[in-house]
Design brief:
By secondary structure, this protein is mainly α. It is 57% helix and 7% strand. The N and C termini lie far apart (57 Å). Bound molecules: zinc ion (2 copies). One zinc ion (ZN) binds next to loops.
Length: 209
């Protein structure tokens, strides 16, 4: 087997843009010693920074519960929007806002009992449905009157009232640590991936029956 000539490559040292023919497959920089040193310093710094970032996020998982909670809430809210879209798609229906009943809106996850007043229901599926963001969620503070009517209309009197009774009854406080929120988030993220696939399949089927 003869020696294959290696392809030219660009020097990996920051600031040098020379092209060179490497002597072996491991050579990353051109034949300047300064470049080799620069490159070594550069990769060492990157490695160090990566380690610091990892340490910082590990520290935050255990010590910054508020941040963990907020990050997990965002994922949960995205997941609920997906679940809701799937709920409608499985029934061959166009998604509508739980509070105003309109289709084609800027969707968000609307909490019936607010996260501020009822933090114990912040991650509760019965407390979260598809809602339009600007009109109902923001400008009408959740449009709770419409929300109540929407639940009854969508689920019928019996099931709708059962959900409302559940929401109005007392609930135990969530006892979650920062790490609990972090672990919950990892689980939600993998669920989200699956749900996105499922929704795409459903929408694909309805687009090309
Ligand atoms: Zn160089
Ligand atoms: Zn609405």
């Amino acid at each position: 087997m003869g020696l294959r000539k290696l392809k030219d490559k660009k020097c990996a040292a920051p600031g040098c843009d020379k092209t060179f023919t490497p002597a072996n497959g491991f050579q990353k920089t051109c034949y300047s010693i300064k470049c080799a040193q620069e490159y070594a310093r550069h990769t060492q710094k990157k490695k160090q920074e990566k380690m610091w970032r990892k340490e910082k996020s590990e520290w935050e998982i255990d010590n910054d519960k508020r941040k963990q909670k907020n990050m997990t809430q965002s994922v949960f809210n995205r997941l609920r929007v997906l679940e809701e879209k799937i709920w409608f798609a499985e029934r061959g229906l166009e998604p509508v806002c739980i509070s105003c009943g309109k289709p084609n809106m800027d969707w968000c996850c609307g909490h019936y009992k607010t996260r501020g007043s009822h933090p114990e229901l912040a991650f509760d599926r019965k407390n979260t449905f598809l809602q339009c963001n600007n009109h109902c969620n923001k400008h009408k503070s959740g449009n709770i009157q419409g929300y109540t009517a929407g639940l009854l209309e969508r689920f019928g009197q019996d099931e709708g009232n059962a959900i409302l009774d559940y929401l109005k009854s007392p609930h135990e406080a969530l006892r979650m640590s920062g790490r609990d929120y972090y672990e919950m988030r990892l689980k939600l993220l993998s669920e989200e991936k699956e749900l996105r696939k499922k929704l795409n399949q459903l929408l694909d089927i309805s687009a090309h029956p």
